[in-house]
User: Fold these one by one.
Assistant:
Number 1:
Amino acid sequence: MFKVVNKRHFTEKCFAFSTRFSLLICASVLLFLLGSIAIQGIGAISLEFLFTPAREFGKSGGIFYQLFGSLLIVLVAALLVLPIAFGTALFRNAYNNNLAIAKIMDQSLYALNAIPSVTYGIFGLIFFVNFLGTGISWFVGSIILAIMMLPTVTLSTHQAMLAIPKIYHENAAALGLPKKEIIRRVTLPQSFHGIVTGLLISLARAIGETAPIMFIATAFSGVKVPGSLVEPVSTLPTHILELAQQSTDPQALQNAWGASLTLVTLAAIFSGFALFLRRRLTPEGHS
Amino acid sequence: MSTLAAMPPKSAPQHGDALKAYCQISAILSVLIVALILSTLILQSGPVLSLKNSGMFSTHWNPDAGQYGMMPMVFGSVFVMIIAAIVAFPIGLMTAIYISETRSSKLRRFIKSVLELLTGIPSIVYGLIGVAYLNIWVAEAFDLQSGRIILTAGILLGIMILPTFLTLTEDAISTVPARFRENAKALGLYRHEIFKLTILPQAKSGIAGAGLLAIGRALGETMAVMLVIGSLDRLPSPLFNPLSSGQTITSKLGREVGESAFGSAHFSALVFMSLILVSITIVLTIISQYFLSRKNTYV
């Protein structure tokens, strides 16, 4: 197979071969994943599928209320996380001089990132659903997703604030602007891109989460537009879960593929938008 | 700290204070949330820990008989994680080497953005792919009745952590300055020798961080594993038989939390398992952050 000159040469050939072979495996896995989602999904998706409610426990009909529920839960979560993430990042950058506090804040955010998604579900079930007595509620789902989004949005905002050239602050201070004016006129506009991209990236992740919301926020069937904060909704991920468990039924499986493609597309739209805005909004002079 | 922090507030104390108070409250909230989650889990673990004969270290899980043996789940989690690492690490490392060696920065950027796309696929969709394809292929390959076994879960999980491991490893390799590579090449070393002798010693802390982060993800992954592992609360026999059905901590939680009554010993046992899981993943992440920050890369 190889022209063996000596042992070193042979090892080199093996090394080169195995890196190429690994790349080939990665590429085929990638093609298979994206291809199967796209091909199976396109077969199931139509305008009618997107805009009619599910029938027969999801086997026929569409995914209208699931789509609505997913968007409702994540968009409200984004609204909830926005002020807290911004305030935390601003505190870290503008008010905190204490290195120990900064360390504690970093570690807490890393820890939040490390907590498995199913644990968030259990926490929500104990603390909100039972302890605070909300019952199964889409709004609790939003709160839990907001907590999961917090590290990403905060760190992204924080990084953007760190990247603001020092001279901007110094100039503003030299003009005699008070601190809150500096924040309003320099920090906020100059770190805006960090908030927006952080939010979009975490939205892309949050919309696909199943485990955090399946105990606390969703019901499988018979759910329409919620009339209050403490009613369940249906979401795409939990819908896929139910259908995947009836995977021997081709009709259910087909709808699961349709819902999956919708979900992946939504996530891709959010992250694509984040990439686009990162380029458009990043001010000059930033890394 | 930024220069802004060093400056004393000058005027408009009322508004400035309101803004400061808002920032402080947000910061306190985001730190307290972690504490709240952990203390909630610890408190709810109480009932099963105070049980005398909970038999947590046994291998029998039968809540109706008051047996809460967690060993099959703990073993399943570790076993699946090991298989995932075996699947993902060699392929990820070799691919990362290839990508970082290639001279085309266009190709590199393209691969990177595709990998980002892959990490965006929700785990439930991986689960669906596992159920619809992998499951059946594994059953055919090993001539089994059902492909819902530990091996399937391990492979699926390996595929899921591959993008994370690959990008972080590639970052670690790419941050090694080019002059090391060039010098080694000028000495007439082959590529595998360059990698072993100059790149690896400098990138290994980053690669270790990537690996730890990836297995942390693998341990905490729920939906995909839950759909393909077969949900059998027994230790495989023989012990390291990947072709038997099993259960991980996460798949157990996903299946049973909804069914157990709040406040019961059964529920408390599940919460305690979750607490074990959280402790492991937090420790893994903190160690991996340490490794990754040593090489000035970030997640």
Number 2:
Amino acid sequence: MQQPLPNNSLHPTNPIIHSPPDTCNTLNFVLTLFFLLFFHTVFAQGPAAKFTVSGYVSDAASGERLIGATVVDRRSGQGTVSNTYGFYSITLPADSVALYVAYIGYEAQTIPLMLHANRSINVNMEASAVLKEVEIVADKYERIEERAQMGRIDVPIAQIKQIPALLGEKDVLKALQLLPGVSGGGEGQSGLYVRGGGPDQNLILLDGVPVYNASHLFGFFSVFNADAIRDVSLTKGGFPARFGGRLSSVVEINMKEGNENEFHGEGSVGIVASKLTLEGPITKGKSSFIVSGRRTYIDLLARPLIKSGFKSDGSEGVAGYYFYDLNAKVNHRFSDKDRLFFSFYTGKDKFYLDLKDRYNYAQARNEYDTETGLGWGNLTAALRWNHVLSPRLFANATLTYSRYKFNTDAASSDRSIENGVTISESAYSLGYFSGIDDVAAKVDFDFLPNPQHYIKFGGSAIVHTFYPGRFDTYIKESVEDPGTSASIGQPNVTAGELALYAEDDWKATDRLRLNYGIHISSFLVKGNPYLSVQPRLNMRYLLNKGWALKGAFSTMRQYIHLLTNETIGLPTDLWLPTTAVVKPQDSWQAALGLAKTIGKDYEFSAEAYYKEMKNVIAFREGASLFQFDDWQSRVEQGDGTAYGLELFVQKKKGRFNGWVGYTLSWAWREFDNINLGRRYPYKFDRRHDFEIVGSYKFNDRVSLSATWVYSTGNAVTLGTSKYQAPGPYTSDGYYYSYETTHTAERNNFRYQSYHRLDVGVDFTKQKKRHQRTWSFGAYNAYNRKNPFFLLLDKDYDNQTGKQTSVLKQVSLFPVIPYVAYSFKF
Amino acid sequence: MRNLLLLLLISTSLASCDEDFLSQTLEIDPPEYDKQLVMHGFGAHPDSSFNVYLTRNFGILENVPDTAWAIPNGLVELYEEGQKKATLGYVPGINGRYVVPTQAGLFQPGKRYELRAEAPGFDAVSAQQVMPYPVQVDSVRFRPSAGLDADGTKLSAVDVFLKDEPGVEHFYEIRVVILYPIIEFHYDGQGNQIIDTVGYQEYTIEPIDSDDPNAELTFGGGIAVSDRFFDGKSYRFSARIYNYANTGYRFKVRVRSVTEEYFLWGISAQRKYDTEDFPFADPVTTYTNLDKGIGLFGLGNEQVFVVE
């Protein structure tokens, strides 16, 4: 058995102090405070001889770097963790050292050594069998009470892949919806609403690159292919200083790097889509690749039917919908000090309808063609260079590109041909395009001067280009007409965003641990500059009996806004910049909580939070996404407030794993020109949110998983009564009336509560050359009719001829069984 | 386990044969509501008449006969500076109209008015307003060419040049009325046709928009702006309308200084009207300034200009 260690540093964390604005005084004060604290604590070290042990922690089988592995000197109790690239560094007095390296799901290792010079030691970890006790031992060094950071939850990808999903499509974002403090949008949607925030307030990073539209098929599936993902984490408060740009959450999704040692593959065939992932070494032990693709095929399966349908109408044509994703990554290790990565993602949704009508009339042959398309998708790319500048200083430089575009085209042409000569011709087309692209450069440093400090600092520069919407038209009205093209719309906007940050995870005493930092950002758009200084602080104080008291304070600023429909994930979502008229969004958030590991491996946390947001964006009353005038005239800016309590118990490993979460929360909005200036509940204000996620592995062949969720219904606006509204009052007495509803308050009505049970069972069998799994399950297993929208309808009684008004709740998904076949080799 | 799974799948399949099982709609109860009087009245200076419409509300699912909306047995009274000025008389019909007997100078600028109504079975309702002073209008002009709308259609505009009083909050509204000539055809003794313009029919033209980004459409064909963007300054306030250049028609332009309550109601009522059946529009909260009721008592000081 391991001896209990005094609290050690471990997880790099973050956060906060104070919020304020863009004044020079604030900037000076905060910077002075930060640097005083920083230099005093970091460089006030004793003169004893010290040396550094550094290196990488990797999976022995695949060579994948392990993030957050614990590295502890068992003799002194000093410790650290590996960073996002598996790099660790620990500086210790010259002495004999017993380096203990542990990671969930792997055999822990103890490496004895005599430290009399800097040492580079790469650690390859062997995966342990699921039920071995050694896993539990490893966990001692990564307990929740050790970490200073609040509001961060890591969900193992293996756990995500066990969660039963709609139509069997394992979904990263929907798994995050099952965490406390996080709501999905409507039924089946993959949107995230974190601690009362809006859908635009989440920074979703795929290998460090922002992904602007994270959903396929109107939000029913997320764009992340779970087979290509290595790890997922969600930060919803206590933001580390390295993060900025969004108010409510940061979702970090990292792709796998590819197996350095052996060629492997996995894939699946499901109801909706099929996937295939291949990975392997390019140069064994030096470089590797991974490529993963997913595509739906309903359009291909239905194509013969659709074609024959058109044919029976006398036309030729095809119509359909599909989406696909392609993830790829290569990396090469030039030396123990240098490594280069290139990762790439592209995904697209496409609706299409192509019709050709051919008919003869009199002497002429007539051709009528129609082509309609609706497409949207993301493309991201990152080129990353890891360099170990010294055993204590790790650098990561990244160039990134991210693009989201939406376009729609409708074109028709009509031609009459007589004796081989075109006698009449016309053509019309209308296209619409909107989107955003970012080009960014970023550099990050990890500096570990001693085991008491884990310092991160760096900066980034982003050039955003916004495409707020452009129409392209083409009209040709006769054979002689050469055709006229025209483009109208709002001009593209280019804006620059700069950020600098520094944070230190400081083990001040055995009981007190701080993570403090500062994030400074600026934005320049059309000559309008904005500056923001955002202090961050996280604190942990160890109480008796293993309880940790935690506190956090963070301020955030967001310079880009999303015009979106909150009910369903439409591809018309429009990312737009802060302008001279539309101000950046700001927030501050404070949290206080308790954490403890109960028993061997149940993590418990309770967090109370309070968040205020300024300049949040909403559509003006009566405005909609389907208007194409100046977007600035369609929005209002106001305040948001959210507060609540989150309880969370998680078990990450073992035969049985999963979590239970509960959230009690309130979320409000207040705008001068919405709801007559009165405060109202946010659409996703949910008093109670409860979720249970569990998975039980009977043996290597059979596992069972289930989730059950319950939440208070969303708030919606519904007329409470109806009356005759008058027409205009003019001095000539003109008057008419019409029936309208009286809407006294925004979001005055609640949907029925939402609850749903999903179940799944996997049957796995090891075959000669591969492992196969049959997955069966059901979404909404007890067929709960959950509300999707309300409909004020009229029912007719055929017998009496009487018409009655009814209020209907329309649901989307009944019980939906699924089956999927997957394999690994 | 396999047998259990098979059983579950079969059960699900059988259950799904039941129409109710997979039906995706449920009837639910509507929100509760308070039975209230609904009153709308807009008084203008220098009008000599004043109409008030007193009706009631119903639940959103109730079937209401046309004749059930009006409140025929109500008591509607107008007060000036706390003193009763008139009791409005009911005009039989389905609109619930009550009128003040014609009297010159019914509403005077700067005076406070209160409109009260009561009816058996309902809470009494009331609202107060102060009649604004007239707008200082420098000139009103017709601009034949005022750009294109979103579809590329040519627009004209009516420009009102006004001078805003500093330090006092004002709300301005303009309405444009086209005067269609009423034409009569006669024949003289020789059989020649004679065309006579015997009068004009007025039609309110719905403005398209304004080149003023702060202007808002108001219910029933108005466009309004608050002076918070130009307090105390000379200001050009425009309403863009469809192109009537070269038609030879004359226009009547009503320029009003209205109360804030009328301004807020006019905007919310127009937005509500525009989006009533459009589910993707953001909901509109109905403005009311009636205590314990729904509706509006609004006042406005109006000047009328005729432009060629």
